[in-house]
Each structure stands twice: as structure tokens, then as C-alpha cells.
Specification:
The chain is an alpha/beta fold. The chain has eleven helices and 20 strands. The strands form three sheets. It has a nine-stranded mixed sheet, sandwiched between helices. Strands 8-7-10-5-6-9 form a six-stranded antiparallel sheet.
Length: 431
Amino acid sequence: MPEIPAAAVELMKFLAESATSAHAVEAAAGMLDRLGFDRRSERERWDGAPSKPFYVTRGLGSLVAVVPGASPPWESGFRIVGAHTDYPGFRLKPSPVRMKGSSAMLGVEVYGSPIIATWFDRDLTLAGTAWFGKPGEAPEPRLWRLEGPVCRISMPAMHLNRGVNDEGFTFNKEENLCPMLVLSGVTADSLARAIADACSERPDRLAGFAGHVVDCQPAAVGGLAGEMIFSGRIDNLAMTHAAVRSLAGLRNPATTAVACVFDNEEVGSSTFSGAASNFLDAVLERICSPAGREGLFRAIPRSVMVSADAAHAFNPCYEGRFDRENRPLLNGGPVIKVNSMQRYSTSAPTSAYFAECARAAGVQVQSYVSRNDMPCGSTIGPIISSRLGIAAVDAGNPTLSMHSVREAAGVEDHGMMISVLMKHMEGCIPV
């Protein structure tokens, strides 16, 4: 196999670290910490325009990072890249351990719109956030992940479901999606003890926890010629990594560069830290505080955002599902996503802008548009663009098996996207 591009190696490491949106933000913050970014708090006073790179988090799964430009944003605007940190799958219900016969099962809720059948017969584990503290004190969050495969959602044998190959696999979301945790001898406290142990804490200090079901299999390079990456969570942790990595690689941008990654896109973004919240708005306004709100109002029309989310790659086995002329290929470069019903934020000017950034980076671009007889998905682009009044383009890398437990991407595409986003964030391409 050929040598794996460095950007693909970085991505695979990031995917391994990012079991949940909170883990992804911790990994992104660690990347920025190592580069000397300041960590700010929304609770603190921010005096004046920032003079050095910084980042701020809200909740556990959202982060905004900023590199100040050579001129203030009210004179040159912002160059923003937005992405999301969550992915479709399953979340643990409160008091999740339940007995069925002698086996301990887990009660889960469906989160977003996963291809549920792909989660059956997989090696699965659990990860999430736990809170520890004493009564009367504010508990502190700790990230946790159980090592190795600890649970499994099993399909019925062929002999018990003989029509599965001709009629399709069907299941009840409440009764049949319970991962098997232990065959016998478990109590309701067993999971809590395992979580406390994973955090090196005492179980009596555990105030509560939230958990995700996570695929155990690590990211891998695949294909006979090593052209693809196979992994879970490519949508949209690949673009989360690209956003933060492109910002981290900047040196003296002309305009103020911003990378923002949000939780809860897969369920609509309407949370206190999602893309529909005021998180990004508040950060941008505080950056412009020396010029007051008027400074923000002057900055917005000078600004442009790239909403970076995975794009559909052409699947030769289902070519009838794709527009005839717009069929993005793996390793063919970033994809500009267009929808006349405005499910994507792309316009003709912003599409041309992104293509010019790609040309400056020496990268080709592709395009995607849905067939007229198939509905189009959406992402954070229209949400932020319409609320802030900022011009935006929706783009992403081509991805196969989107929303499956295992997705596929091209090994070359990640580096190309980072190069384009860096050209965008440098602020040298006119708006």
C-alpha cells in the first residue's frame, strides 16, 4: 500500500479519541492547548479585542476557537468554519440496566437518524460523561470510556427469521435494540461501579452519568490500493477535525479566523450549545466589543462562513439515487452542496468563493445536488447564516454509507479540505 497522507493519519487518531461529542471537544482543545491557545470562559470579563489565539467551550460538546487577524473584524470581517461534533446512534436511558431472563440488557434511546440495522452484531462499548462530587457541591464532569467490547445488539438467527434476505430486516425499536451487557450476576449498580472505575473515582461520589453506545472497531485504511478510510463517526468528526486543524495551522491571517463546532446537529441544533443557540453570536460580539454592537454589524457583511459537513459520495451500486451530472467521488476533492430549497446555505457567489479558495490551494472541487424525486438533508449552514445574516457555503468531503455505524472516506480528501479551509481562513480571497 502507498504511504498514508499525514492528514489522514491525524484524522484516524482524532476519530479514535472522539468516542462522543465531549471527547471530540476535549481532543480539539488539547490540540489548541499544545499550540499555545488561551482558554477563556464565558463567565469571565473579556476586555478589548483579542491579541492572541484563544478558544472557549460551552457545555461539553461545543467549542469556538479564534485567531485574530491583522485588521479588526469591523474592518475586514470574519472567516468562519462551522462543523458539528455529534453523530447518530444510541444514548443510554436513565437507569439503563434492565433484566430479561438472567441477562442484563441496556435500555437505549435512538439519537438522530442512524442506519439502525448496521449496529446489530457489532462489537460495542460504552462512553460518555460522569459527574462526581459531594452533596451540596457542584459536581465536576469527567469523561469515561469502557475498554473493549462490553455489549452487543444481536440479530435473530436466520432459522428464526427466514425472510430476512428477501423481505428485509425489521425490528421493534423499544424491544429489540437493547444491547446485551452481562449474561448473569449483574445488578443496577454494576454499570455505575464500572463507570466510576473508568474515571478512577469512588462509586459513592458518582452523582450521575450520560452514556453513548460506541462501535469498538478503530479506523482503518482499506481498499486494495489503500485509498479509503473505514471508520465510525466520519460524519461529522472528519469536518470537526478539519475545521480545528485548519485554524491551528494559520500564521498571521489577514482577517479574524473562527472555527466553531457544535453539539446536537443530528437532532436539530436547538439546544443551549447547538448551532441554533447564541454561542457563536456572543463570541463574535465580544470580539467586536471595542467598536460596540455597531462593530459587529459592520463585520457581518464583510464575513463569510464555510459550513463543513459530510457530503454524499457516488455509490455505483445505487447510481439511480444520484443526479446524473453531480456525482462526487472519493478522493475527488471537497464537495460544494447546493439545494434550491435552501436546505443548504450555498449561493452562486459563495460557491464561486469556495471554488476560488480551492483554486488558490491547488485543489479541485466537486458538486452535489439531490434528485428532484428525493428529499435533501440539511445542516448547520442555513441555521447560522439566516440568524447572523452571514453569507455561507455548505461543503464537505465525499462520504459513503453516511449514518452507518461504519462509513467510508477517501484518504486524499481530508488533506485537500484542510488546504482549502486554510486559504479561506487566511482572509486573502476577496468576498
